[in-house]
Predict the structure of Aldehyde dehydrogenase.
Amino acid sequence: MANEVTTYQNYINGSFVSAQEHIDVRNPANGELLSRIPESSPDDVERALHAAREAQKPWARLPAVERAAFLNTLADRIRSQASALARVISAEQGKISGLAEVEVNFTADYLDYMAGWARRIEGEIIESDRPRENIFLFRKPLGVVAGILPWNFPFFLIARKMAPALVTGNTIVIKPSEETPNNCFEFTRLLDQIGLPAGVFNVVSGSGASTGNALTASPIVDMVSFTGSVETGSAIMRNAADHITKVNLELGGKAPAIVLDDADLDLAVQAIRGSRIINTGQVCNCAERVYVQRGVAEQFADRIGQAMASTTYGDPLAQPDIEMGPLINQAGLDKVAAMVERANQAGAQLVTGGGVADLGQGFHYKPTVLTGCQSDMEIMRKEIFGPVLPIQIVDDLDEALAMANDSDYGLTSSVYTRDLSSAMHACRELDFGETYVNRENFEAMQGFHAGTRKSGIGGADGKHGLYEYTRTHVVYLEI
Ligand code: NAD
C-alpha cells in the first residue's frame, strides 16, 4: 500500500504557511512519492527574513540560559520521537535505519551540548595604556543567519547551524535540501510545540537556484552558514560579496587515508571500509583515496576488497539489517558510475565491484575497490561521493604526504601506523582541517570541524564553532 503523501508548509514567524508552487520528494530506494514541499518564491524568503529580523533584538536580550532552555526542551522532544524521525530520514535520503537513529540521537545531544555553552559565552577585559580607562570586549550575535543545508546528514545539520546561532542570540532562516526536506519539517513540527518566540526559527524550502539564491542575495542576512558542494559555495560567496555578508562554508572533501607498513591492518581495513560504506560513501569527511605503503599494499587491497564485497545493500526501510542504502539520486549514481569507468580506462584495476547494482529499483552502486591508481587520475582528485575506494601504492610516508596535500580539498585526513614519530610527522605535515590517527574519520561535537583550501571557510562545533556566530564589540570606557 502506498504511504500518504504529505504536503508540507513553510514555517514563517511562528506559523505554518502555504506556498504557491511545490516540488515532489521521492524515496531514492524505490521512487515512491513521499511529499510535496514548497518551492518558495523570493517573496516567501523575504517574509521569513523580515520575521527573523524583527525577532532578533528581543531574542538577543533574553539571558542566554533562557535561550538555551528551548534547545534542551527540543532535544527531549526529539529523543522521544527518535524512531519515527529516523524513518523519515531513511525514506527520503536512503540512510540505513541504524545510522538514521544515530543521527537523530546525536542531533538531540548536539542541542544539549550547545545549550551548555550558555553560561560560558565570554568577552574580555583588556589592560589599557591609559590610567583611567577600561577596555571591554563584548561578544555579540551577528543578527540574522541563513542556514542552507545539504542532503547527506540533513537532520543533524539543522542543529549544527541553529543551536550555536540561537544560543548566542541570533535568529535563523533554514533552507533544507530539496532532496531531503521532510525531516526538517518534522523537526519544525516539534519545535513549534515548545513556545519559541515567533520569528526566531523559520524554514523556507525550495530549489537552490531560486529559494537558495534569494536567501543568499538578501541584504537582510548577516551570515550565510552553508554546507554543500564547492560549486554552490562559490555561488554563495559571489552573492554574499554584494552586501559584504559573512559566510561560513563547509564544503566538499577528498580525504586521504595513509596506511603504512607498520599499521594494524585489521584496524585499517575495518575503519576504511566503514568510511566508504557509511551513508553509501556520501560523507564529506570519509576516506576517499588510500595511499598504502608497498610492503602491505597487496595484503591491504585483498582484505579490503573482500570486506567491501561482503557489504549488504538494498532498501533501508524494507530491509532494516542491510549495511548500505542507495545513492541519493540518478545524477549521483551516473556520476559515480562514470568516474569508475574513466578510472578503468585510465589504467586502474577493479578488485571488487564496479557497476550499477541491479536491484530492480533504486540508485544502487556496487561496493567497489580499485588498485593501480595514480595521483593524476580523476578518481584520486575529484570527490566521488559513493561506495568506491581508489588505492595508490607509495614507497614511504613522505611520498604519501606529498600526494595527500596535493589536492584542491583540505577537509579531513587519516593515518594508520604503530609508530608514534611517523604519526606525529604526518600530523605536522598534513595540510588539512582534521587528521584522524588509527581511527575512523568521524568528528566529535567538542572538536572543530573545518576545512582548508576549497573545503571551506570557518567551521563548526566546539567553542570555535560557537563563536563563528558572534562578532566582537570593543568598548573604551574612561571613568
Ligand atoms: P549542493 O551544493 O548541491 O546543495 C546544498 C544546498 O545548497 C541545497 O540546499 C541546495 O538547494 C542549495 N543550493 C544549490 N544552489 C544554490 C545557490 N545557487 N544558492 C544558494 N543555495 C543553493 O550540495 P549537496 O549535493 O546537497 O551536498 C553534497 C555536498 O556537500 C558534497 O560536496 C559534500 O562533500 C558536501 N558536504 C560537506 C560537509 C562539510 O561539513 N564540509 C558536510 C556535508 C556535505
About this structure: The domain at 256-437 is CATH 3.40.309.10 (Aldehyde Dehydrogenase; Chain A, domain 2). The chain has 14 helices and 23 strands. The chain has a mean pLDDT of 97.
